[in-house]
């Protein structure tokens, strides 16, 4: 039986078209949004930095205050900026996807974040052991040394930045573009989590030896590289990894490593206490 469009019945899957409305945002506002976004993505305004004030942007761009305000609000809605009343506007993320992830997962349980880090970084480390180039190895050596130098200064913020750069280099050595982009988009959230773990003062439990990871990647030992990388996110101070069963699992993993002689055959734990 044929059902006429006016009979009130429609086949499954049919959708009535909704009327389109003219966009309200002006072309000028779009241009301002593009300029501000470029400042962010190019690194001129790093994550965590405060952008120029509204009057300063009005003067620099030569546009009305309302145009600047609308552009800033649009970027805040997309997760790139964080508007803090009484303090200013700060860069939250370097891409819309990173901003969405930050906004969506900023309050995620530390255990959940650690599990995601472990999954991504162990996979990247295994691939890096198979695909690394001499240039990758030189970069890892440089960033590992920089990480140790940052630790020696006692500057917590500098150490967090150096540690994050090292882990990004490990992921880059995987030469998997999707994994690299995904990790980059999560990077701001992961750094914030690590920054919260470390706090404003470096303590012995925050340090981990990453030399074994680099050695495994250099040797092409994917299993050891993956094991080393997988353990780092869970080796933070116990109080951060709340959630039933996580402490028992971490303890069990260390016991297993001892029983099997550990990844380096010495009987030592695969991961020492500290932040990754």
Give an account of the 3D structure.
One of its GO terms (molecular function) is DNA-binding transcription factor activity. This is GntR-family transcriptional regulator. It comes from Streptomyces clavuligerus. Keywords: DNA-binding, Transcription, Transcription regulation. It is built from eleven helices and two strands. With 276 residues, it is mainly alpha-helical. The protein folds into two domains: 68 residues, Orthogonal Bundle (Arc Repressor Mutant, subunit A), CATH 1.10.10; 136 residues, Four Helix Bundle (Hemerythrin (Met), subunit A) (Up-down Bundle). Strands 1-2 form a two-stranded antiparallel ribbon. Helix 7 runs antiparallel to helix 8 and helix 9 runs antiparallel to helix 10. The chain is elongated and about 60 Å long.
The end-to-end distance, rounded to whole angstroms, is 66 Å
Structural class: mainly alpha
Low-pLDDT regions: 1-13, 242-274
Tally of DSSP helical segments = 11
Strand order of the largest sheet: 1-2
For the sheet with most strands, the description reads: 2 strands, antiparallel
Number of domains: 2
Characterize the overall form.
elongated
Provide the succession of SSEs.
Answer: HHHEEHHHHHHHH
What is the helix fraction of residues, given as a range? 55-70%
CATH class of the largest domain: Mainly Alpha
> What percentage of amino acids are in beta strands?
under 5%
Region (Disordered): 1-26, 234-276
InterPro entries: GntR_C, TF_FadR/GntR_C, Tscrpt_reg_HTH_GntR, WH-like_DNA-bd_sf, WH_DNA-bd_sf
Domain HTH gntR-type: 26-94
GO molecular function, one term: DNA binding
């Amino acid at each position: 039986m044929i059902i006429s469009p006016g009979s009130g019945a429609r086949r499954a899957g049919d959708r009535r078209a909704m009327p389109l409305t003219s966009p309200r945002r002006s072309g000028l506002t779009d241009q301002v949004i593009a300029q501000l976004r470029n400042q962010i993505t190019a690194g001129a305004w790093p994550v965590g930095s405060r952008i120029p004030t509204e009057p300063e942007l009005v003067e620099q761009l030569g546009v009305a205050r309302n145009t600047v305000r609308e552009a800033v609000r649009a970027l805040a809605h997309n997760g790139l900026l964080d508007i803090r009343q009484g303090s200013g506007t700060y860069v939250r993320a370097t891409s819309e996807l990173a901003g969405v992830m930050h906004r969506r997962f900023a309050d995620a349980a530390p255990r959940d974040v650690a599990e995601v880090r472990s999954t991504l970084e162990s996979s990247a480390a295994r691939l890096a052991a198979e695909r690394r180039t001499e240039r990758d190895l030189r970069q890892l050596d440089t960033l590992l040394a920089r990480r140790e130098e940052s630790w020696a200064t006692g500057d917590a913020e500098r150490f967090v930045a150096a540690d994050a750069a090292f882990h990004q280099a490990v992921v880059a050595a995987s030469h998997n573009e999707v994994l690299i982009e995904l990790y980059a988009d999560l990077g701001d959230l992961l750094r914030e989590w690590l920054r919260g773990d470390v706090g404003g003062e470096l303590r012995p439990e925050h340090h981990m030896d990453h030399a074994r990871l680099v050695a495994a990647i250099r040797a092409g030992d994917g299993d050891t590289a993956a094991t080393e990388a997988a353990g780092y996110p869970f080796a933070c101070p116990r109080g951060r990894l709340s959630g039933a069963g996580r402490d028992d699992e971490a303890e069990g993993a260390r016991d297993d490593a001892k029983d099997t002689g550990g990844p380096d055959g010495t009987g030592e734990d695969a991961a020492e206490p500290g932040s990754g």
